[in-house]
Specification:
It is an enzyme of class 2 (transferase). This is Galactokinase. Belongs to the GHMP kinase family. GalK subfamily. GO terms for molecular function: ATP binding; galactokinase activity; metal ion binding. It holds the Pfam family GalKase_gal_bdg. By secondary structure, the protein is of the alpha+beta class. It has 2 domains: 197 residues, Ribosomal Protein S5, domain 2, CATH 3.30.230; 173 residues, Alpha-Beta Plaits (2-Layer Sandwich). The strands form 2 sheets. Strands 1, 2, 3, 4, 5, 6, 7 and 12 form an 8-stranded mixed β-sheet that branches. A 4-stranded antiparallel β-sheet has the order 9-10-8-11. The protein is globular, with a radius of gyration of 21 Å. Bound molecules: adenosine-5'-diphosphate (ADP) and magnesium ion. The site of magnesium ion has 2 residues, from loops.
């Protein structure tokens, strides 16, 4: 844990009442299907964001982040409503709003989840604040409640139309497992994901690319899925089989058909991934990752040259499988590699990026880690 308690005293003049932490995440497989009521299979990474909070006896909210040069933002609790302009503090303010907090507080944020790298630093931030507030004020929200409330904060307060996956895994993950999450009812199953004992490692490659298409591109993909659902008169793409999709092709535009094909095949790949993980068949898992990438690249059109380069270079260097993760148009890719090949895989990806004159990528590795938790009470 960073020395957030000492820094809190320096910034606010008293010790925090509570400190909570929440991790970022990587989605092993099941991309762009959380908003289609699908199954996803993410895991929490070891990097976490911490929130230290103290109750005030007025209605002021003061907040600062070590990742934002420690500048203190101050606001009256009554002004914290959707529409209030702001920067990064809109994420924690959104949580304060969605949880219905009625007392002033001081908050300090510090953490290691890389920002904007597709590892969901936004969910880590929301979930550490929500976990701390839930315990501090004895709100009694379950983890499912907190997932919906933090998603609401990001959707309605920050204005990002994200699905429910990131917050769910940041809150519910168990160490050593991936989380099979049914996005329709938020039911979960913890699936052992023990790469290390098989001599493998999951390399995370942050391409450092952020293509400006991101926001519009995401909304457009969701709109295509909604349009297919409306045209076919089904509750969600979860209810669509590949056969039905093929026989309904004439009712859809070519784009809608491709978007729906990604969703339907990706949902099947998630269930296949669970099966192969239960058998520790990592070679088959690698193939599923490759198929997922091809589907996101060709049918869903959310990859980009940097992500394709990271995937192709990892595979050429001997990875068992690789794919883009997250919303796309930049962000990170993952590669399932032999743990003894880490250095050479990194070198190969770095060289491929340099050859194409892309910005140098960053690399992380992580074992599946624990979800949000209270780590100190004052
Ligand atoms: P991702 O979730 O993939 O990291 P997003 O764009 O969804 O990318 O969220 C990143 C944003 O979340 C940052 O630009 C910042 O506004 C906010 N954020 C996340 N972590 C922190 C932090 N530790 N301190 C301040 N702001 C943060
Ligand atoms: Mg995010």
């Amino acid at each position: 844990m960073p020395d957030i308690d000492k820094r809190f005293v320096q910034a606010f003049g008293a010790a925090p009442d509570i400190i909570a932490a929440a991790p970022g995440r990587v989605n092993l497989i099941g991309e762009h299907i959380d908003y289609s009521d699908g199954f996803v299979l993410p895991f929490a990474i070891k990097d976490r964001t911490f929130a230290a909070i103290r109750v005030r006896n007025d209605r002021k909210v003061r907040i600062t982040s070590m990742q934002r040069r420690n500048k203190v933002v101050e606001q009256n609790l009554d002004a914290i409503k959707p529409g209030l302009k702001g920067e990064w503090e809109r994420y924690p303010f959104g949580v304060i709003w969605s949880l219905g907090i009625t007392s002033g507080i001081d908050i300090m944020i510090d953490g290691h989840v890389p920002l904007g790298a597709g590892l969901s630093s936004s969910a880590a931030l929301e979930c550490c604040v929500a976990t701390a507030l839930n315990h501090l004020f004895s709100l009694g929200n379950s983890l499912e409640d907190l997932a919906r409330l933090t998603q609401r904060a990001e959707n309605e307060y920050v204005g990002v139309p994200c699905g429910i996956m990131d917050q769910s895994v940041s809150l519910m993950a168990h160490s050593g497992s991936a989380l099979l999450l049914d996005c329709r009812d938020l039911s979960t199953r913890h699936i052992a994901f023990d790469v290390a004992s098989s001599g493998l490692e999951l390399l995370i490659i942050d391409t450092q690319a952020h293509h400006s298409l991101t926001d519009g591109g995401y909304a457009e993909r969701r709109a295509s899925c909604e349009s297919v659902v409306a045209k076919l008169g089904i509750p969600s793409l979860r209810e669509l089989s590949l056969n039905q999709l093929a026989s309904s092709r004439g009712m859809l535009t070519e784009t809608e058909f491709m978007r729906a094909r990604h969703a339907v095949t990706e949902m099947k790949r998630v269930m296949d991934a669970v099966e192969v993980l239960e058998k520790k068949d990592f070679a088959s898992l690698g193939l599923l990752l490759n198929q997922s990438h091809a589907s996101l690249r060709d049918d869903y059109n959310v990859s980009c040259p940097e992500l394709n380069c990271a995937v192709d270079a990892s595979l050429a260097a001997g990875a068992l499988g690789a794919r883009m993760v997250g919303g796309g148009f930049g962000g990170s890719a993952i590669a399932l590699i032999n743990a003894s090949h880490t250095t050479q895989t990194i070198a190969a990806v770095e060289k491929a990026f340099a050859d194409k004159r892309f910005k140098a990528p960053r690399f992380f590795t992580s074992l599946p880690s624990q979800g949000a938790e209270v780590i100190q009470r004052g």
